[in-house]
Amino acid sequence: MTYRPFHTDGATRPARWLVTCDHATNTVPPFVGDGSLGLPETDMARHIAYDVGAKGVARELARRLDGPAICANFSRLVIDPNRGEDDPTLLMKLYDGSVIPGNRHAGPGELEKRLNGCYRPYHTALAELAARRDDTVIVSVHSFTPQLRGRPPRPWHVGLLYAADRRLARPLLARMRQDPDLCVGENEPYGGHLPGDAIARHAIAWERPNILIELRNDLIRTESQQAAWAARLAPMLAEAAETAGV
Question: Distance (Å, rounded) from C-alpha 90 to C-alpha 160?
């Protein structure tokens, strides 16, 4: 089977929503280390390699919102599509206590190969989907680990990340905090966005309303959990967009 660096669902769905999943899989393409970064399977199954559960949420959320979804089909350890091309963490050599053998000696030539084989095709396809309408709203779905090694547990069930554009974030945050069962983080467990990341490139640069949603990965490990979160998030997003008037 020919390798494809991304997958899309519902490219012809008519709604203005575009759901993205930058860290959807732990796939290592065959042209990178013959399909291996030299890590044990236990590490490739961890959050360091991909956002556990995020793909299922993204696909079901897009279906419920009647818009397309695009999911990267390469591990964030191969190259991180949620970083700018000049970001020093674009190709990680050490992550949460694990050394990445396949990246230790990766030089400019290897980086360019991965940019052309994975990163750039994904961003080109994402840009085309985002441009299909003048009023696109971008929702980026990610997940986070409940606890990094040697760090305190993270209490949040879900986090909303945003930078200068708060149009969608503010009403969505208010709506989520009405739910007494949810512990919601504002720019947690990470803060805002990085220059040149996927939201900066495809949303902020075009003044498109956007939000990045982080879900704790122990809450979305099964298909039923992923579907339940998508069902929970879809009406909240629709309501927030209406409240914001975007």
Answer: 23
pLDDT of residue 97: 72
pLDDT at 151: 79
Mean per-residue pLDDT over the chain, rounded = 95
Q: How far is CA 160 from CA 9, 43, 45, 76, 78, in A?
A: 24, 26, 24, 21, 26
Residue 119: DSSP 8-state:
I
Kindly state the DSSP code that residue 217 receives in the 8-state scheme.
Answer: G
Report the alpha-carbon distance of residue 50 to residue 71 in Å, rounded: 11
Question: Which of 103, 112, 80, 97 is CA-nearest to residue 201?
Answer: 80
Pair 172, 211: CB distance under 8 Å? yes
Q: Which of 42-51, 95-104, 171-180, 212-221 is the least confident region?
A: 95-104
Give kind and range of the element (H or E) at residue 211: strand 210-216
Element (H, E) at 83: none
CA atoms of 197 and 185, how far apart (whole Å): 20
Say how far apart CA 140 and CA 156 lie, in whole Å: 18
C-beta separation of 75 from 37 below 8 A: yes
For 219-245, give one letter per residue: b (16+ CB within 10 A) or e: bbeeeebbbebbeebbebbeebbeebe
65 and 238 Cβ atoms separated by less than 8 Å: yes
CA 85 → CA 29, 43, 76, 118, 203, distances in Å? Answer: 19, 25, 13, 12, 17
